[in-house]
Amino acid sequence: MNWEHIWADRKFTSNAFLLLAGALGVSPLLLGYLANTTASVSAWASAVAVAFLAALESAMEEDAANEWTDWAIGIAGVWTVVAPWALGFAEMRTAAYTHVFIGLAVLLMAGMRLWTMSGQNPPRLTA
To answer: Residues 57-67, buried b or exposed e (16+ Cβ, 10 A)?
Structure first.
């Protein structure tokens, strides 16, 4: 399987970002931390940011899409990871774990896209 081709496919990555944003957006309701306003608003704001940037990237023409959208999505992923400590809801483990897990997934995907777009091949594991 050609992983570089998958990461370079903007439709695939945009849809994956939208899926992650949707999961983060509904997590306060589904995982039971809706009562914590700070955690809920953080989840919704991060989800809206990732979804907006992914939709923007998807709507752009191929030659107009620069790497700035992937950098911006990566920054949104970093914020999602650090939000539990920055906003003070790290003690609420369900909300914190959700933010960290989804934020890391967003950050990893944005990083892989940037790496693939740079033209360098990712390192290969050899035995």
So the answer is: bbeeeeeebee
Tokens of 25: 């957006």
As a whole number of angstroms, the distance between CA 78 and CA 74 comes to 6
DSSP calls for 8-56: H-HHHHHHHHHHHHHHHHHHHHHHT-TT-HHHHHHHHHHHHHHHHHHHH
* Distance from C-alpha of 64 to C-alpha of 50, rounded to nearest angstrom: 19
* 62-108 per-position pLDDT tens digit: 655 567 888 899 999 999 999 999 999 999 999 999 999 999 999 99
